[in-house]
Amino acid sequence: MLLIFGILIILACVLLGFFVLVQNPKGGGLSGSFGGFGNQVMGVRQTTDVLEKGTWILAALIAVLCMTSSMFIGKGTTVQQDKSVMERNATAPAPMQQQQPAPATLPNTQPAK
User: Fold this and answer.
1) Spatial distance between the Cα atoms of 99 and 110, rounded to a whole number of angstroms
2) Where is this region: Disordered (predicted)?
């Protein structure tokens, strides 16, 4: 399910980026390049309204998809395993550390000169 949400979010992000690049608040952006057909049929004002509404709708869609996808993430599986390991370590007695005996020192066995 997360894969579907991821694909939808990426698709909406690409479309949002396209909408943002196409519109220009001054009226001379890429919409002027594509404007031959759109300006004749819908007019300049309606084209910018559609692009602005599409931008807001896609931004809201991305926000909703991101918040909704968090509901499908597995809850507590790794945290539960970590807790059980920590509880096991807390209740188990600490292992005794063995002290190594100090090296035995031999008496001075060097021959006298």
Assistant:
1) 31
2) 84-113
Identity of the amino acid at 111: P
- Give the C-alpha separation, 100 to 103, whole Å: 9
Record the tokens describing residue 9, joined without a space.
Answer: 């979010």
Residue 55's identity, in one-letter code, is T
CA 19, CA 53: separation in Å to the nearest integer?
10
DSSP sequence for 50-69: HHHHHHHHHHHHHHHHHHHH
Q: What is the pTM for the complete model shown?
A: 0.50
- CA 7/CA 15 separation, integer angstroms: 12
